[in-house]
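Bug #77: duplicate submission created two jobs. Keeping one. Sequence:
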Amino acid sequence: MTDTVTLDGASLTVDQVVAVARERVHVAISAEASLRAARSRAALEADIERGDVIYGVNTGFGRLANERIPPDRLLDLQRNLVLSHVAGVGDPLPLDVVRGIMLLRANSLLLETSGARPVLPERLVAMLNAGVHPIVPEQGSVGASGDLAPLAHVAYALIGGGEVEVASGPTLTDVRRVGAAEALQSAGMEPVSLEAKEGLSFVNGTQAQSAILALLVHDAQVLWRAAHAAAAMSLEALLGTPVPFDERIHAVRPHRGQRASAALMLELLAESEIRESHRSGDDRVQDAYSLRCIPQILGTVADAVEYGAGVIAVELNSATDNPLVFGEDVLSGGNFHGQPVAFALDMLAIAITTLAGVAERRIDRMLNPDSSQGLPPFLAKEPGVQSGLMMLQITAAALVGESRTLCTPASVQSIPTDGNQEDVVPMGMAAAYKCRRITENARRVVAAELLAAAEALEYRKPLRPGRGVYRAVEIVREMVGALEEDRPITPDVERIASAIREGAFA
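Kept job's structure:
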């Protein structure tokens, strides 16, 4: 991982977003990008000087676009825009999301289409490096005209308003809340005074929903590999067969994700003594779908994640404010509309819920004596006296049920806003909120499967599972011991879920 992420408006990646958002990697700005932004600003100021009518610069906003603003009130217009749009409600977004928003907004403001002075992205980068984070409520954006409220909360801190959270040390866990002006001063910065168009340039954009999509794409990719470790462990515990993962089967239905999933399963199951123990004398012809169709199910999940990765790769380096500056031409359009991001988030939510759903089915098969191939009921040492892991499947069922409820697409739930001027909106932040919750749920369901499968494999000893499965069991056992008697299982699940998030099974 690089020690510094350098922004230029054109080359930001998901991996870099994760590094800055979660690992506090240092951020810098390309000198060329700053010069480009300065040239764009000069062109815009020339247009203003000529008296051209420019939306949001010398007119009102939204339904008030026909209201002309006198020259001596242009700066008031920008400040008032930020103040009036600080309207978010609900719990604050996590710091990694806020850092992602700040990074994406700085990258976008470096584009020559924004017309903002270089001081805006420079100040955002300075705040990131100093650990000064605006408090951004998670609710209040419909995702068109951009993420107005979330970005206004960021801009509010930039001009010295409200409170911020200051993180000290190499992690984001030691945090204190102070006034924004005080935090800026302590970090050697002054509040920014917004010039013409800069308030609008700042709040118009998809960076809140896009920051969440970037982090979730990364998390989904990590979770996908952990889900395969859990699935392979379960297959071994249930005395399943690897035949359905044969490359020839998937070559005649060559979806990219399906082939990758089958190959990964074979890799995890290679050299399994458990498989050899029941190769002959087993009267079962086929495994249940939750085992046999792993590549078809998790492969489709991979394809959906890949779609989201493609959308965010474009969005990270796109101009999503309005109007856009093209030299002497300042054009009004709709790049702030978050429909591409909202669609991707909805699709990702459905995919991750599917991943969790099939994991819960395998948990049930291992705990249920009617389907567990001779394993003790609920994997209890003394069934009846002990309940073993009975509650593990119930918890997983609750999380999957909630996730399925949250799967209703947000991107089709348009409610007209702004006096019907913004009459079709994508609800991108609602999609982002749901997808974040679903991902957290799925991570815990996969953790529950890893816990159950590791316990089930205790009953297949002394036979060793495949080499990849064996390593996955070792990772689980480094965190959680075998179940000798009933104990609270919440700490076990949470410990494994945290390890999944950190990439322990990837």
